[in-house]
Amino acid sequence: LVNESIFKGNTVMEVSVTPKDNCNIVELNGRIDSFTAPKLSDILTEITQKNIYRIILDMRDVNYVSSAGLRVLIDIQKTCKKFNQGELILINIPQRVFETFELAGFVPLFKFFNNVNSAIEAF
Amino acid sequence: MSIQPLKHSENQQYDYTKLGELISLSEKLASQSDFVTQFNSVINILHNRYSCEIKIWLSEPFLQLVRIDKVNLSLSILEQLSPIMKKASGEKQIIPNPQSITNETDFPLVLATPIVIEDEVWGIIQVEKTEQAGFSREDVEFIRGLSFLLTMGIDQLWQKIHNDRLHHSIAHLRSIVEINPSILSNLDRDGLLNSVVSLLYQNFGLPRVNIFTTRGDDTHTLVQTGISGDGIEIRLFHMEERGSNPISWCIEHKDFIVINDTHSDNPFPLTYFERDIQSEVVLPLLQGEKLMGVLELCSDQVNIFEPEIINNYTLIADTIAVGLRNANLFRSEHLSRLVANRLQEVIGTLSVDLSLDDVFHNFLDEMSNFIEYDGCAIWLIDTTANGSERYEVSTSFQLAAVQIKNSISEETNQKQPVDLNYVLDSYILNKDNAKDLFLAYPWAAEVVNSRVSKIRDPGSPYEPLGALLDFKKDYSAIASPLLVKDQAVGVLVFIHHMAEHYDNETKSLVSIIASYASIAIENARLYFVAHDQAWVSTVLLQVAEATQSITSIDELMEIVVNILPELMGVEACTVFLWDPSIDVFINKGSNGLDEEQSTRLKAWDISSGTTTVFEKLKESKGPIVLNSDTISEEEAVNIFPNYDFEKDLLILFPLITQNSLCGALLVDFTNSNLNINSSQEIWDEKYTLIQGAAHQAAIAIENLQLVKSQEEEAYISVALLQVAQAIVSLNQLDEILGTIVRITPILVGVKRCIIYLWDEKEVLFHQSQYYGFSKSELELMGQVIKGNEFPFINEIHQSNHVIYHALETNESPLAWNEISIGEFHILEEIKSDGNGDLSIRIDDHSLSTRERILIGLPISIKGENLGVMLIEEEDLIKGAPSQHIREKRIEIVKGITQQAAIAIKNELLQHDAVKSEIMERELQLAREIQAAFLPDKIPEVPGWDFDVRWQPARQVGGDFYDILILDRNKIGFVIADVADKGMPAALFMTLIRTLIRAAALEKPAPSSVLKQVNELLIPDAKNGMFVTVFYGVLSLESGKFVYANCGHNPPIFKQTQREELIELTRTGMALGIFSNIEIEDREVIINPGDWLMSYTDGVTEAFSRKDEMFGTERLFNIMLGTSFRNPKSLLDMIEESVLDFIDGADLSDDMTLVAIFRKNQ
Prior knowledge:
The complex is a heterodimer.
Chain A: E1 2-8, E2 11-20, E3 23-32, H1 37-49, E4 55-65, H2 67-81, E5 88-91, H3 95-104, E6 111-113, H4 116-122
Parallel strand pairs in A: 3-4, 4-5, 5-6
Antiparallel strand pairs in A: 1-2, 2-3
Chain B: H1 16-30, H2 35-50, E1 52-58, H3 60-65, E2 75-77, H4 83-91, E3 110-117, E4 120-129, H5 137-184, H6 189-204, E5 208-215, E6 218-228, E7 231-238, H7 246-253, E8 257-259, E9 279-287, E10 290-299, H8 307-348, H9 356-367, E11 375-381, E12 397-404, H10 408-411, H11 420-429, H12 431-440, H13 443-450, E13 454-455, H14 464-468, E14 476-484, E15 487-496, H15 504-531, H16 534-548, H17 553-568, E16 572-579, E17 584-591, H18 595-603, E18 606-607, H19 612-620, E19 624-625, H20 633-638, E20 650-657, E21 660-668, H21 680-729, H22 733-748, E22 752-759, E23 764-771, H23 775-781, E24 784-785, H24 791-799, E25 801-806, E26 825-829, H25 846-849, E27 852-861, E28 864-874, H26 883-932, E29 944-951, E30 958-967, E31 970-978, H27 982-1002, H28 1006-1017, E32 1027-1035, E33 1040-1046, E34 1052-1054, E35 1062-1063, E36 1082-1085, E37 1091-1095, H29 1097-1100, H30 1111-1120, H31 1127-1142, E38 1151-1158
Parallel strand pairs in B: 1-2
Antiparallel strand pairs in B: 1-4, 3-4, 5-6, 5-10, 6-7, 8-9, 9-10, 11-12, 11-15, 13-14, 14-15, 16-17, 16-21, 17-18, 19-20, 20-21, 22-23, 22-28, 23-24, 25-26, 25-27, 27-28, 29-38, 30-31, 31-32, 32-33, 33-36, 34-35, 34-37, 37-38
Helix pairs in contact in B: 1-5, 2-5, 5-6, 5-8, 5-21, 5-26, 6-8, 8-9, 8-15, 8-21, 9-15, 11-12, 16-17, 16-21, 17-21, 21-22, 21-26, 22-26, 26-27, 27-28
């Protein structure tokens, strides 16, 4: 279990990682912007480096994703899908954040669900 | 294929002669490098041209740039703004607006123009016509132009100052990194101070640098080492009233103080400061809580000591404090060692042929090498005159030895010359004179009474020598009592004609001398008593000879117990050594006893409070007879089963030197010619003999311990010096720390040593250098460690304490991280260690009883914890581990960690400086690249009006726009955002721009252009990098606009015919992720009166201070409004609205806007 939080000015992001059934559930809280994105990238890369490619990202408490944040998710998705070993699935994504994905045309790159179980079934 | 720029319709009526004038003026101004001159000429032009009254208000930072006293003009400086100025400040533009001036009746008499840089008002100039008619529209435009020129001048100057500061700060840091090692390597205190002041003076161009060092605990009189244009000077500095000058303030508060302008911003009387000193900073030199002195830096300019520079100086101050501590340590150890050596030699000369007085004389002679004096003397209580009451002050003193410097008459401040020979003769030869003198000048007698060494206060009564030599009342003197067996037998006095010449360091040196003098007295007494009986002297001589060449205490003990029974005709004896640190007596050997009895004695547990006879010995420091009063029944049974204390005589003699107990000798008188019924005479004889032998043994022990401790003390200095040298000679932190972990075991004999560095950013420890671990151990222990994974080091780091844990005999370092909170103990709180002395707190006996312990020390400087050092220590001395050695060892390692901390801090500072310099350069370059690739002008086309805004964030995002002239009828518009920052974003942007330009020339359809760009981009887009692009082609005649939107924020289309806004949403995915993506083209017709506004997410994702996002809603509302008449005013509104929204916060991303407006025909 990893718990991290970073703060800078009004930028806050908290991350916790919980292993479950062959996959890792990553719960995020706060903003994924150009300041917090590198940290998120580190945490997710640490997971894929352990050869865990099934990752569920719980975005219930994420209120903003900047283009830097999108970039991290795309990068990790590419890694996860590389050898058909798994993928990054997003759950509980708030509408406003979903619009960011929609805007850039990234919705087709990810599966979106409303709960963990559906996500696990989808692997 | 270019379109000629058209004249802007609004400017058509403008008087171009004035424009020309403005341009030539701007050329003229630009050629003047001095800002004040620029400022002056603008004011002059205004004044001459309009013969007007000029009022000016300047903001604080501007005032600092322009010294108003240098602006020599007919203008008045305002504190308060006039209403029109307030308006100009609020609207950030010239009031009245030239647009509103249409005919002569509107010509204003007063106008106000703000000086605005980066949306901040730096000043406002008000111009008021006094005679003629008001300002025409041209005049207003002209004045606006002038103020704009002024603005550019300020901006340039400000940038330059800022840049200079940055460079200054970096250069400053570099110098510090260079200076620090040379401070640490200097162990000579005076040399250290001289070199520090010289280094600071040379490196920082300060006209005066002073270091004031305290003497012991005295913070009233400091030694000032200073340097200025006149060279280095050293003098005494007397503190006046507390808080009356910056030095005393600093000493009182133990904090730094900055005076940035001695004339205007200074709470102290100006008389304190030397002429020409405009600003100064005083920093405390702190070793823990203890003030070692202060560093005073003075400058002849105001406002030199910026906050970031102060930080650098603080680091220097810390380094000086450590250097001073090392030098002090070295100096005092060095001195006491020398003194001890010399005095031992002198005492050794004592013999039948050499009287005690002669020895004393040599003593004082010898001391002139160590202590500066005009005169010194040893006074002894005359025992012959007054029998047993020999330590009463009323008893007579005789002058045993005196030394007076010959040169004294010429250079001292005597009131009148004294005939020295006469003085000496009359007092030394005539004992009554001496006695009277001693009683008449009672200061030395007070010292004898109080039994502690003392420095004379300037106002105290005279002591005999000073009075005899007729010194002025404020002369200096030190006196130390001579004590034998806790009884005062005399006093040693040094005097010097200068006031406050002696400090605590000298005092402790004099105490050492006094204790040696006491030994000499005691030796002499014993010697002369013993001399009467030849056989006694033989014993003593034998003991003395036997003990002289011995180097280990165990060996010494063996000799003592072997010699004594034989020489004294006693059956048996055994010797005990006392370890005061743990208050335990340890049996060190026996003679004449059977195996069984020896074993019993060895097993005797004589720790504090358990054994009556030893408690009595400690208390009385005299011989104790073993009997039922002093030996418990249990002890009698267990230890002495073969003795009957009714008959057998056993006496425990103390081994005493310099009034302190160092051991005990138990002598068995059974079957000797001495027994309980012996006559007093026999008893006395025997007793004296054994007492003498015991004394000799004690002196030998003392000498041995002295040699040992001298070796240790010298060791500390050498160890710290070696580490300091390592830091000086190596550049890389890894090398320095590597040397430290390798030197430490060699110097202090620890088994393992490892350093963990604290990473503040990542919140974890990194394994750094190590000694005594195998590769696999290191790997298993972890290269990177989070606090909760290793409670032991985490505790050191959090608490800043030295802590230890007693290890099991074969405990592997792999188990160290399992040591939990309850299992370790605080050894020492670094904070409480103010004076550099070790204040060990023992929670647990394991420190002295366990053979192996793990000690953890924080590596910290100024409360900033930089890492942790662990040492595993195995006591190499067999038998009972000595706490004393552990304490010394920890003290050395502590010194080492302090030096390591400085090395790490240096490295971090240097690293930060280099990094920020590189980053600053990179950002600047990125900004330049970005700006260079943006179109430098906007095409002017009949029937259309375009405008753009581009505002890069400090970090430089990857925004860009481009306007491509495709043919006579077609213009391409690009707005894009690269998902990255800084240099990579700038470079990626130039790539995409080039790709789009190349593709746009080949392919007419925007979708095909972007598809081609995407394919070409993919090989270069790493790590999920992508770019959102909106590209549209406008046909100028028809107004047809064909576009493709690859994941970019949808541009907003506003038509006159419709009420609602239309978003030109995505027609494809962002570029750079997948090849062969689908992109479509869409089109809209832009009719006259229609607007198209495209933007990047820097606009909608701007955050307010309350953490709200600007969002599309606010943008829509602006677009829905009708108050803007052209693209410029629309974009002004949006920009202003965003900046209002973020309210001074930094833009987190670039902000780019492109607006297209088709004019009504």
